[in-house]
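Potassium transporter, Coptis chinensis. C-alpha cells?
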Amino acid sequence: IPGSQTSSHQVIDWSSLLKLAFQSIGVVYGDLGTSILYTLPGIFPHGVEHHDDILGVLSLILWALTLITLIKYVFIVLAANDNGDGGTFALYSLICRYAKVSLLPNQQVEDKDVSNYQLEIPNHRLNWASKVKSVLEKIQIAKYLLLFTTMVGTSMIIGDGILTPCISVLSSVSGIREAASSLTGNTVMWISVAILFLLFQVQRFGTDKVGYSFAPILTIWFVFIGIIGFYKFLKYDPGVIKAINSMYIVCYFIRTKKDAWISLGVVLCLTGSEALFADLGHFNVHSIQLSTCCLVFPSIVLVYVGQASYLRKHNLDAGAAFYKSIPGPLYWPMFVVAVLATIIASQSLISASFSIVQQSLALGCFPRVKVVHTSSEYKAQVYIPDINYVLMLACIGVTLGFKTTLKIGNAYGIAVVFVMTLTSALLVLVMVMIWKANIFLIITCVLTIYLFELLLLSSILYKFVEGGYLPLVFSVILTGVMYTWNYVYRNKYMYEQHNKVPIGKLRDIACDPSIQCLPSVALLYSELVHGISPIFTHYVANVLALHTVLVFVSIKSLPISKVPEEERFLFKRIGQRDIPIFRCVVRYGYTDAQNMHDFFESLLLEKLKEFINEDVIRLYLPKSKGDTESLPVMPQINKEEAERVVQLVDNECQNGGVVYLIGEV
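C-alpha cells:
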C-alpha cells in the first residue's frame, strides 16, 4: 500500500513473532473460526431448495472471505494502524494528526515534539488530496460528522462484544440436541447462560493469560475443522471446487432473485473480521498476518468447501450442516472442542471492546472508568471491570430474550456490516489524505469492497424488525453517552481556555503579602497547556495561602497510541526566577497507562529537579499565537541558584509533603 508507513517500525525477532502469532489465535480468531456453526443455517433455515444454490452461496462465501477478511483487513486495514494499535479511534487519530479536524486543539507545538507524532507520508502532493483535507478543516459540520461516525463505529463494536458471545455459545451448545433430542430449547438456553457467566469471570486474568490458555484449544479447532472439511470435500462432491467461479453468484441471483438478496446471511461468515483490526494493539501486524495466512484462512475455506460438498448430497441438512456432517466417531470430541471454541470466540470482541473503550476514554469520549493493564510487556492489553460486567449482563439478557441463534443472527449481521462500512469510509480518507494512494487503487477498492459491503448492509436491514433493531438500540445508547460526555469535556476545556488567568495576575498573587506561604509542594491539575486555569484564583481567594513550590500539571492525551517514556514530561518555568512556579505537561497516548500514584509523583519531582539542574530555565514551550503566558527567554541561572531551588523542592517535600489540587469548574 503506497504511503502506509503509519505502521509501527518496531523490530520483533522470530521468537516473539511466533509467540504473539500463537497467542493471537486464542484471542482474535474465535469469532471468525466459529462462524461456520451458524452461517449456512442462517442462509438455508428451511433447507436447500435448488441443488445449484449451494454453489452460488459457497462462491459468495469464498469471495466475501477473500475480499473482506483477507484483502481488506489483513493486507489493507492493518496497514492503517496507529503505531501498532487498531480500531475505529486509531483511524480517527491518524486523520486528526494529519488534518486539523479535532474539535479540541491537537496540533500544538508540544504535540509535534513527540517523536512518533509525525506521520511518515509520501513527499509528493496531490491536488485532490489537498482539497479533501481543506474541506474537512474548513467545514465545521464535517468535523462533527467525522467524530460522530467514529463514535457510531465504536458503539457498534461494543455491540458486537455483546452479541458475539450470545450467538457463539448458543450455536455450539445447541449441537447437543443432535445427540440428545430430549433436551429442550430452554435447557440449551440456561446452559449457555451459565457458560457466559463463567466466561466473563476469567477476563480479569488478562489477555496474556487468557490467550495462552485459549490458543491451544483454538489451534486444535482450526486443525480439526480443516482436516474434516478436506475429508468431506473428497468424500461427497469434489466438484464444488468450481464455486471459485463468481458466475455461480450471478446465476444464484438470477434464479432466486429477491430471495437471494434477502438471504444474504453470508455476512455471518465475516463475523470477527473487525476484531483483526480492533485487537491489533494486543499483538502486532505481522503476528496477525502470519496466523491468518498460515492457519486460520485455509482452515475456514476448507470447512466451508466441505460443508457445501456434504450438502450437495444432503440438501435437507442445511439447518445443522456442521454437526450432521461430522463422522460418527468424531461427534463428541468435536462437540466438546466446538463448545470450548465458541466460548473462546467471545474473547475476540470482548478484548476489542476493552481496547476501544480505553482509546475513547483517553480522547475524552467516554466516562471515566477503571482501566487495568494486565501485562507489563504489552501495554495495550487491558481489562476494564465496569465494561466487563455491563457486557456480561447485556449478553445474558439478550440470550434470555432471543433464545435462538436465528433471531440473534439477524441482529448480529447489522452490527457486523455497519462496523465494516464505517471502517471503510474512514479508510478511504486515510488512503486519500495520508497515504496519497493511486486514485485507481482507491476507486477499485470503493467499487469492489465498499459496494459489496453496502449490498450486504441493504440485505441485512431488511430483517430490521426480526431482531435487527437490537444493535441499533445499543449504538444509539452508547453513542448518546459518548457524545454527551465529549460535549461536556469540550465545553469545560473551552471555559478554562476563555477564562484563563493572565500571567501578570499570577505574579501579583505570588507577591501579595496577605497570602500566607505553606511549606509544601502543590500539584494543581488542569486541562490547559497554555495559560493558568481559573480554578487557581478560586483556590487562592478561598484559602488565602500559596504553597512554597507550585507546579501546574496538565495531563494531555494525544491522538497517538503511545508516547515514549523519555518524552512524557515537558517543563517550563512561569514568572520570575525568584518565584518557584513551574508548568509540567504530561503527555500520554491513548494506550499508555496513566499512573497517578506514588510512582508518578516521585517521577514528576525527579524530572523537575533534572530540569532545574540543567540550567534550562526558559520556555520549553515555544510561543504560540494568543499565548498570554509566553515570556522572553530568560538567561540561564547559575549553579548556586539551581542548587538552591532543588534543595527547596526536597525540603518542602519532606516538611509539608506533596499536595494535590484538583478542581472542577
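The domain at 31-98+133-487 is CATH 1.20.1740.10 (Amino acid/polyamine transporter I).
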